[in-house]
Amino acid sequence: MHIKVKLFATFRNGRFKEAGQERQEGTNCRKIILELGLTEEEIGIILVNGRHASLDHLLQDGDTLSLFPLVGGG
Amino acid sequence: MDKILRVNMTDLTTKLETVPAEWAGLGGRGLTSTIVAAEVPADCHALGPNNKLVFAPGLLTGTAAANSGRLSAGAKSPLTGGIKESNAGGTAAQMLARLGIKALIIEGLPKEDKWYSLHVNMDGVTIQEETELLGKGNFAVIEALEARLGKKTGILTIGPAGELKMTAANISVKDPDSKIRSHGRGGLGAVMGSKKIKFITIDDTGAPKVQIADPEKFKTAARTFAKALLDHPVSGEGLPTYGTNVLVNILNEAGGLPTRNFTTGQFEAHDKISGETMHDTIVARGGKPKHGCHAGCIIQCSQVYHDKDGKYVTSGFEYETIWGLGADCCIDNLDDIAKADNIMDDIGIDSIETAVMFGVAMEAGILQWGDSKEMLRLLTEEIGKGTALGRILGGGAGSVGRTYGVTRVPVVKNQGIPAYDPRSVKGIGITYATSTMGADHTSGYTIATNILNVGGHVDPLKKDGQVELSRNLQIATAAVDSTGMCIFIAFPALDIPECLPALIDMINARYGIALTGDDVTNLGKHILKVERQFNIEAGLTNKHDRLPEFFKTEPVAPHNAVWDFTDEEIDEFWNF
Ligand code: SF4
């Protein structure tokens, strides 16, 4: 399946902003996060197609996964 | 001894009063709202003789407590017609606290057509006639007053917008770099203008240190508190690195970034105005990515933004301003948005109200979507000069909507809705609807839990749990706004168990009292109820705790969300 991964804030350093990836069916968010060299603790927000998702969320063909460190403002 | 300074602009007299016992335990918002509710007739005209403008530093302001240097300003708001408290950084709060001034109350209206200034020092407060600086922008006022009275002078000032009593006018506070922070929302600049006070200067020469009842206990608590602020990833790292503007990309991804006057939830050019882009631009041009709005801020969410030639353009360049002029007006030029921010500081007009207003003005056809040059011209030539059009624009989003027959006008209680679409981030919609302040994200910042996963997570697209979330945050915020603390301490306070007890310990050590967590919650509840009662007497009832109709009927992309709370569900908010 094909997914899109988008990274934000410090996660972009030494990585990328946006990349298309080919993955096996049944890949979850955690697997992608770990493969990016990120740890679970560093993750602030996981969005799949603009909705909050958990580390165990199973991705589907055509999904967009957006990852943010713990940041905030207001 | 703490004191109250009272200025009567009708007979041009001033008084020094002792602090009544019932005000002794209050500061900041708790005190300004209590005074306004007690002394201002709720049905008075906000720009008439019976309104009062009150300034109060927080309970911890002037101490070594981190992030405690914010000043509250309160009055009846000419924008909402209800009670208003707006707090800001800058140097004034700490100077007033050191001078032992619990509150400065300004009442009455001058009989003659003359302008005045106030000067506060160890001896109290005096009134002088002012002629030289009338009509001047805030930057020129600060420069002239520093030349007149010295670099260290604390300054509160209004620009042309305040002099002309525009309902979006703010009150500017000098910051440690002689630049500007603002009591932005609710038109308090117009109230100061109605009293014909161009500026207030503060000299704290000879002021003693703020007294601490139990210095040892205070020190320990202050250390724990500061550690919590630095340990939390949001206040310790996120905010100092990217400022508040990191939210552009987050809200865009989550589909809650109001775009093109709230017609869609994502902005195509989000990357051009994002916090990431802004950070890189600031660093490349030699600006400062982190910066504090007052001495003692250890979070430092502010920044200094330079132009291409490395020259200062603006500081305190906030997400809400960038969102409003950016996504909501479809402007993708961050340099022009920064220029607008600077002009708004100078003419003294709220950058949130004005940004929301421009979205409505574009819909009205006053200028084209994305036309940043015309926006800059309207700011300087029309609002800044007080032309007829400028006064309509300077009245805020509601004013432009009414004048031009626009039906999509994002306001609650006539105050512009900021930066987070209430259809796709439902908790903040409850805050907008129910806040005593009119649409105000800071009064119960559910974005923390709806979007940022701070203090747990409540799904932003569902109704479940939103009323309770907003209620708890509004109660806590009312209490925090009374301490002089910046609201961003809420991020660690929601996640780190030692943070809030340390804050309460600091208050107890400062005053030699024994407040508990429940006392603080009760204080927050009490403040909200006092404010609500004022609003009801002013004619703002639960019927005004509503979002504009279009949020119910126009689904917002990408989630096709609508505002689907019933009136009864919203009214549940006040059941406490
Ligand atoms: S975190 Fe930002 S708003 Fe808060 S006190 Fe510091 S600079 Fe001011």
Report helical residue fraction of chain A: under 10%
In terms of DSSP E residues, the strand content of chain B is 5-15%
How are the strands of the largest sheet of chain B arranged? Answer: 2-1-6-3-4-5
Tally of individual helices of chain A: 1
Give the end-to-end Cα distance of chain B, rounded to a whole number of Å. 36 Å
* The CATH homology group name of the largest domain in chain B: Aldehyde ferredoxin oxidoreductase, N-terminal domain
CATH-wise, what's the superfamily of chain A? Beta-grasp domain
Inertia-based shape of chain A? globular
The CATH C-level name of chain A is Alpha Beta
- Regions of chain B with pLDDT < 50 over 5+ consecutive residues? none
Name a few traits of the molecule.
heterodimer; A: 74 residues; mainly beta; Ubiquitin-like (UB roll); 1 helix; 5 strands; 9% helix; globular; B: 576 residues; alpha+beta; Aldehyde Ferredoxin Oxidoreductase,  A, domain 1; Aldehyde Ferredoxin Oxidoreductase Protein, subunit A, domain 2; Aldehyde Ferredoxin Oxidoreductase Protein, subunit A, domain 3; 3 domains; six-stranded mixed beta sheet; 23 helices; 17 strands; 39% helix; binds iron/sulfur cluster
What does it look like?
- The complex is a heterodimer of chains A (74) and B (576).
- The mean pLDDT of chain A is 94.
- Chain A has one helix at 29-35, and strands spanning 2-7, 18-22, 43-48, 51-52, 64-69.
- Chain A has a single domain (2-69), classed as Roll (Ubiquitin-like (UB roll)).
- In chain A, a hairpin with a 2-residue loop joins strand 3 (43-48) and strand 4.
- Chain A is globular.
- With 74 residues, chain A is mainly β.
- Chain A starts with a strand and ends in a 5-residue tail after the last strand.
- Chain A is built from one helix and five strands; from the N terminus they run E-E-H-E-E-E.
- Helix content of chain A is 9%, strand content 34%.
- The two termini of chain B are 36 Å apart.
- Chain B is of the alpha+beta class and 576 residues long.
- The mean pLDDT of chain B is 97.
- Chain B folds into three domains: 3-202, 4-Layer Sandwich (Aldehyde Ferredoxin Oxidoreductase,  A, domain 1), CATH 3.60.9; 243-421, Aldehyde Ferredoxin Oxidoreductase Protein, subunit A, domain 2; 423-495 and 514-576, Aldehyde Ferredoxin Oxidoreductase Protein, subunit A, domain 3 (Orthogonal Bundle).
- Chain B has 23 helices and 17 strands.
- In chain B, helix 6 packs antiparallel against helix 20 and helix 16 (426-434) crosses helix 18 (466-480).
- Residues 67, 89, 292-294, 297, 299-302, 486, 488 of chain B line the site of iron/sulfur cluster.
